[in-house]
Amino acid sequence: MKLFARRLLAVLIFQQVAAISAADLFLLPTANQAIYERGGSERFFVGTAGKPWTSGTFGCVRSDGWQIHEGLDIRSLQRDKRGEPTDPVITTADGTVAYINRKPSLSNYGNYLIIRHTIQGLEIFSVYAHLSEVRADLRAGSVVKAGEPIGVMGRTANTRQSITKDRAHVHFELNLLINDRFAAWHKKNDPKQRNDHGDWNGQNMLGLDPGLILLQQRSQGTNFSLVQFIRSQRELCRVLVRDTDFPFLRRYPQLLRANLRAQAEGVAGYEIALNFNGVPIELIPRPESEIKSKARIQLLSVNEAERKVNPGKRLVTEQRGGWKLTTTGENLLELLTY
Ligand SMILES: [Zn+2]
Predict the structure, then answer these.
(1) Mean pLDDT of the chain
(2) Kind and range of the H or E run holding 95
(3) Ligand 1 centre and the CA of 57: distance in Å?
(4) CA 31 to chain centre
(5) Distance of alpha carbon 51 from alpha carbon 62, whole angstroms
(6) How much is the pTM?
(7) Distance, CA 334 to ligand 1 centroid (Å)?
(8) SS3 state at 207
(9) Ligand 1 mean position to 321 CA, how many Å?
């Protein structure tokens, strides 16, 4: 009887897992599912030392909003005798390994792994950082299935302050890629600065909020649209670039908006709306007749309310009653259009 009950339970759990994976585009990367529970945030997120759990969420959550955290810090549930985390880390969706760093001293992410996914036609890159180990047989190009174990949670990082045992977590990101010519751009733009990770440098990725994505897909079910999620982000600013051909346009055509006048007259540049983290949420082709200035990169507008709430990326700054792009903002657009 006992055995039967246990078997029945196993079947029920299996059915539940199967039902979740059929509906969800993204799975959580560990067994910690408390983000879905009412009041579960404290059991799900790990804050920075001495700070509340909110500092482990995505966004402008550190240094009074002036520092951005581009992922989720997900708490460990499982430890060995010495108190080290042992939680298996799994892939969030079907994909291909894009990059593995097995030299923790080369990154503040420690041992980490990046996986490329195509979700509803969009190329998305998931990141799993601070692992104690990455599965030994995995290489760039390895094909992985949703839910497949890829490593073990750890505390690796090259930062001066190490991650303490009580703060053990996996740092999880969902990103868009800015430019697959990053390594060349970096070499030209910043020749003195080392780049140990090629195109897989953190500077070349723009994070979306994985927590919001997970919660929205859970509440909206099959109606959840990743493109819609990106397009409905609040706008921080709008810029114009006098470039007509750059990799982002080909990688993310779903974010392009049609413009009949540009189609008729020819495209002279793109108007781009950015969210607070610099994610292009809409790109509109513009003909010469719709462009006012000759400058190659122009700041068209700033949403001051959004800038007040989410200043952390420092893309724009106030200047004599107006606004201008910061060096960070200009660099992002230079890289985007390179
Ligand atoms: Zn983190």
Answers:
(1) 93
(2) strand 95-101
(3) 8
(4) 20
(5) 9
(6) 0.91
(7) 27
(8) strand
(9) 36
